Fold this protein.
Amino acid sequence: MKLSSVSVACLAVVVTSSAALGGTYSGGAGSAQDPYRIGTVADWQELMNTAADWGGCFILTADLDFQDGALIPVGSASRPFTGDFNGNALILRNGFIDQPNNDYVGLFGFVGSGGRVRRLGLEAFSIMGRHCVGGLVGYNQGTVSRCYAAGTVAGDDDVGGWWDQAMLVRSATVTRHVLSQAVIMSAGYWAVMVAR
């Protein structure tokens, strides 16, 4: 019986120690030379829930199918995503974000100055928010390049299929190879690529 007690105590110490270290993902250290690797749905969930890592570097290592699972945006107005997300020309599929009472809603809710999202495909997604709603990015002050989004985007105002607000944010950068094939529902301003 004593052996069993000792085993449980050791396990508790290991769990506490790994939680204190921060993001683990499928590897990586979050630097440009060794980005966090996102290769599973569990890795994406870790990214969504670990705001302390949103200034780090990430690389997608596999297509992910969320199987119609509920997601939350990466980045917010109070804690923007300012890191570098390299989609590695891979695709995220079949997810939804349902936040009709929230602003800055998209796969990446708010990309701040210096933030970068690139080489990422988004398919069969449903995104619902209030203001500043986009399939890929809700609000962008950074750089988005070589991305596309296909799905349904709904909101009250400032709604875009790929991202909202590009016309208003002078510090944002859009580069080549961007595409949106989204169904857009909005009570206010909207556009296929960008709102306003």
Remarks:
- Residues 2-20 form the longest helix (19 residues).
- The longest strand covers residues 84-98.
- The chain has a mean pLDDT of 77.
- Residues 24-191 form one domain.
